[in-house]
Amino acid sequence: MPKSILVTGGTKGIGRAIIERFAAEGFSIATCARNESDLKRLREELDRQFPSIQVLTEVADLSKKQEVMRFAKQVQDFCEVDVLVNNTGLFLPGAIHDEPEGNFELMMHTNLFSAYYLTRALTGQMIKRRSGHIFSIGSIAGLTAYPNGGSYAISKWAMLGMTKCLREEMKPHQVKVTSILPGATYTASWEGVDLPIERFMKASDVAESVWAAYNLSPQTVVEEVIIRPQLGDL
């Protein structure tokens, strides 16, 4: 029976690169996004490139708890998840003291609460099987304070803390937990900036790091992966 991976926010950037990397290894794919047309295009491309794998794509806004829980049920009906990648994220720049009202709540619900609820929904299967790997896609913004980070940085610091706690909880159950902490990666959110593309990391490099961390022996876990552009942070 093929292994399966669930990647939230899988239509673009790092999420999509991770899906393509694991699909190339024969994994069944489950993913979600808010945009139905983006999901349709992803599904069509996966069907064309990897016709032998099973794919589940669902429209879901993971900033809403009820949508997270609905999506979790759909995934559980589709497969037993071997790899969970909490990748859904939203970045709205701003300073804590004057960012627009509601930024904090929206980014905490999107970047942190979605991962919390989805992880709680799926860890039971992994504990029962005594196998599985959970990845959180954080950010160097969860390690280093910088101007204009605002609520985004708060959510990423919290995500790292949650992942560390989860790692300790899952140790006795043989479930691995890994934080991926990328620097500036060229995705749609950076399009149009006045910087050379070569200054950014490639999403495919982040995906390769996830695959490498997953592909170790059962006796070994990579707890954190910090990845930065060769020339340093932007």
Helix content: 40-55%
Strand order of the largest sheet: 3-2-1-4-5-6-7
Q: Assign the CATH architecture.
A: 3-Layer(aba) Sandwich
How many strand elements?
A: 7
Using the alpha-carbon principal axes, give the shape.
Answer: globular
Count of helical stretches? 6
**Number of folding domains?**
1
Strand content: 15-25%
Let me know the average pLDDT.
95
CATH fold name, please? Rossmann fold
Report Rg.
17 Å
Taking the alpha carbons of the first and last residues, their distance comes to 43 Å
Keywords: Oxidoreductase
GO molecular function: oxidoreductase activity
InterPro entries: NAD(P)-bd_dom_sf, Sc_DH/Rdtase_CS, SDR_fam
Family: Belongs to the short-chain dehydrogenases/reductases (SDR) family.
Describe this structure in words.
The chain is an alpha/beta fold. The longest helix is centred in the middle third of the chain and has 27 residues, at 103-129. It is globular and about 50 Å long. It has helices at residues 13-23, 36-49, 65-78, 103-129, 150-170, 203-214; strands at 4-8, 28-33, 55-59, 83-86, 133-137, 176-182, 224-227. It has a seven-stranded parallel sheet, sandwiched between helices. The N and C termini lie far apart (43 Å). The mean pLDDT is 95. It has a single domain (4-227), classed as 3-Layer(aba) Sandwich (Rossmann fold), CATH 3.40.50.720. Strand 4, helix 4 and strand 5 form a beta-alpha-beta unit.
